[in-house]
Amino acid sequence: MTDVTMIVNGQVRGASVPPETTLLQLLRDSFNLTGAKLGCDVGDCGTCTVIVDGQAVNSCLMLAGQADGRQVLTIEGLASRDRLHPIQTAFENSGALQCGFCGPGVLLSAKALLDENLHPSTQEIRDALSGNLCRCTGYTKMIEAVQDAARLLREESRSQLTHARTEATAP
Amino acid sequence: MNEHSRVLERDELEIAELRSPDVDLRLPAVVPREPFPIEPLTVDARQQTRAVGQRATRPDGRLHGLGQTKYIDDLSFPGMLYARIKRAGIASARIKHIDTSAAETMPGVMAVLIGKEIPTNSFGPTFQDQPVLADPIVRHAGDGVAAVAAVTEQIANEALAKIVVEYEPLPAVLDPVAAMREDSPQVHAPNSNIYATKVVRKGNIEKGFAESDRIFEARFSTQMIEHVSLEPHAAIADWDANGRLTIWATIGRITLARSDIARTLKLPMSRIRIIGTIVGGNFGGKNEISQEPTLALLSKKTGRPVKGVFTRGEEFIATTTRHPIIMDYKTGVSNKGRILARQIRLVLDGGAYCSWSATTLGKACILSPGPYKIDNVLAEAFVVYTNKTMTGAMRGFGAPQVCFAYESQMDDIAKALGIDPLEIRLLNAFDEGSSSPTGQVLHSVVIKESLRKAADRFGWEPRS
Amino acid sequence: MRNLHILEVKLGRTHNPRDIREKDRMKAFGYVSAKDLEHAIALLGEHGARAKILAGGTDLLVELKHATHDPEVIVDVSRLRELKTIAVADDGLHIGALATHSDIMNSPVIRDMFPALVAAAHSIGAMQTRNLGTLGGNLVTCVPSMDSGPALIALDASVTVASAEGWRRMPLAELFVGPRKTSLKPGDLLVDIIIPKENLGKPAAFEKFGLRKGQALALVNVGASFWVGDNSVFVAPRIALGAVAPTVIRAPKAEAFLDGCKISAEAMAEAGRIAALEAKPISDFRASADYRRDLVAVLVKRALANAQARATTKEKELVA
Q1: Do the beta carbons of residue A76 and residue A9 sit within 8 Å?
Q2: Which helix or strand (DSSP H or E) is residue B366 part of?
Q3: How far apart are CA C146 and CA C154, in angstroms?
């Protein structure tokens, strides 16, 4: 058995699992985080996408042991108690998901992109999402949603900056 | 405030509601109901209702974005077991012997099932020609021959490898045209491989060809396509102490599923409850039962809930696909490009089992002449068994394949006659009141307007 | 009908019930995580042929799920940070075997000196697989269509291999033996890839053609490099072809034609035609051999043109 401890969505989580357990199985079966999905199990479809140490990866292609000591972000970690993440808001408003199965993976790939680049071009969005297959939507609304999310995040960071300045100058 | 303005307010309020997601935690108010009209309303097809063109927020968008939507594989129950099905791996065979003893004694394996144990081992939406688990004839490589339920999926997988099946290989037929011959191996002996036919006749085909200036003949064929819904086929079966079966399934047609399960398990429908969950993509591929009777029987044997999720590999070999169709088109036209006669032969590759093939056949046949005014039509369509993956329903149901054929031939004809491809279609397309190949008088026909509008929008330059 | 025949033959061979293995879920194995390079080498020496090396896992885990291998032990080297560095040393540019394709795409020194390697890395899989997959893994998996091979071969790369018996260096071409077969022995660990000092800054290009623009295997891929000599001639031209032979191969006749030849579009096209004849592609369900030969001619021409464009840009940068 392999003992693993990691920080998942900001919480320390641990488990003792057989070594051949993938990170995907660990998240779904041991931690009850069923947002990441099993679509193909070989890293082609992207429904298992999670963010490990800031990088989007196929969790079906990582052994649980390889995530030991790392930071993992799943779809369940995007929203806080009080609000949706702007990416979730944008996807909801755009109607960019239909059956929703590819959704968690797509949103996390989008997050990985927007964490690096708040002014993505259409081509850069396509590139970032090319590892996530969707059979329902045709991707067009997803690209719109990512652009929308980028705008929301830019606005947020601008207003945070203003807020910080205001606080700094308050007596 | 008069009657008129009150009605307006209510309409506008509905649209505003459509646009905003339900941020209120209370249940949404029930929309006030219109009294049932005494006179049937005939909606003029061209009149836009207020809802059309408006963007409405999908209510499930919130759950999807949060990752909260529960698909079958996200559900689990205490004591739940995992089932896997052993696939034949051979296109045509008789099962001589199945030895499950090594699998049954594996630690962690709670039950094993073979075809002989199924009360009524046949199902299907049209003909009940498909076994739940093959016994004794295997008709395609994805046919299930045995199933196990174990405490983990890994153990179930390993147990499958321990099941020993002895096959007597039988001749296989893989080409649908070859399968139509009398001397071809019979997939469902003693029946002919041609299991459904349809003929559409209109006018006088010989006269039409005699009057044509040019005749074009070509064969078009399409390939087998798999839906690849992101969510694989999945189901969970569980019994209660009153002998009632509950099945959570990805199936789109749950009433049909219930009657098929009642039939295969010899159980009254009143004892079967099917919960159709949110499906991760269907596209026609999840419109009939597949592993559900198997899971139900494994659950009965073990007294525990049993979940089965197909692997991506099984999605390709053991679920329905789109029919490959071999389409022979013979079209007679005037020198101006007017279609005077069209003779079509369609051979649908019907796979190992019927599934929705009869419906697909009907659609393909009726739609095969295309949306064009043709006075003389003869369309003969056959669906043929082969020892390949089942072909069934998939978005379009036969329409996409024939569309590829008749539109390709339209372009060929246009090119040969030196006519603009758009013009030749405008010349032949249906008008309001045209009659279809089967004699139906068509209304709300907007094909020419659509073609012109589309051509305008993407800047089609007429060429000859 | 010929395609149907191929299909029937394939079905007859692979659908023998004895050949279908229960796949898609991994069997149990032992697992050890190497703490550092020394530990890794010791572990590999100890377990020998019973072990498989886990780097990025993008290929190994798929193989394990498809039951192509049933190793007893997995030696996880993915945490060896010392094998991830990308730096210029006295003898050339060293790329650690565990540098991921994303690392290569983002490395300032590679972006500056070898956009061809960036292009090759970018063409692999998708973002998620590039974040996991390593250069060493791609080379050692050794499929004929590997995307990391052609540009490195065109840059005369060599590799360093470590084992309990010691370290050795060899030209990259000697690593490749056949499809999924390298010259590595049990206990060997690929440590780094070196582009020799004399090739630093050499104009190079990589071209790939797949059935999709992303997540696609190459039907054909090509790496090319040359220096622009005095009077605008090809100096030290190299052309490497992938997916058209059991391993990545050079195109020596095309190279010989270009050597000393005046740089022109015609010369590039001719080199493409010669290289196409040196390719030994097969027909499979993705493409026919003829189509692949056509692709070789086009991609070689494009790669040479892109390399020249880079040479010109560099000149401008140096002059400016």
Answers
A1: yes
A2: helix B357-367
A3: 14
For residue A81, what are the contacts with CB-CB under 8 A and spacing of at least 6?
Answer: none
Q: How many CA atoms lie within 13 A of B145 on its CB side?
A: 30
Listed in sequence order, the residues at least 6 apart from B148 whose beta carbon sits closer than 8 Å to its beta carbon are B83, B84, B86, B103, B109, B111, B112, B113, B156, B159, B160, B163, B298
Q: How far apart are CA A108 and CA A76, in angstroms?
A: 10
* DSSP output for B429-453: B--TT-B-TTSPBP-S--HHHHHHH
Query: Alpha-carbon distance C115 to C135, whole Å?
Result: 15
Write the CA distances from B79 to B247, B302, B309, B439, C277, integer angstroms: 16, 10, 17, 59, 63
Q: Looking at this predicted complex, what is its ipTM?
A: 0.93
pTM for this structure?
0.89
- The letter for the amino acid at C172 is L
User: Collapsing DSSP states into helix, strand and coil, what is residue C40?
Assistant: helix
A146 — contact with chain B (CB < 8 Å)?
no
Other Cβ atoms closer than 10 A to C19: 10
Structure confidence at residue C12 as a pLDDT band (50, 70, 90): very low
CB B52 within 8 A of CB B98: no
The residue with tokens 């890293």 is A43
The answer on pLDDT for C186 being more than 80 is: yes
- Suggest the residue from C74, C128, C130 to mutate for an interface test with chain A (most A CBs closer than 10 A): C128
Torsion from C-alpha of A71, A75, A79, A80, nearest 10 degrees: -40
Query: Residue B216: what pLDDT?
Result: 98
Minimal Cβ distance to B230: which of A47, A75, A96: A47
3-state secondary structure of B43: coil
How far, in Å, CA of B91 to CA of B325, rounded? 20
Å from C110 to nearest chain A CA?
Answer: 20
Query: Computed over its alpha carbons, how large is the radius of gyration of chain A?
Result: 17
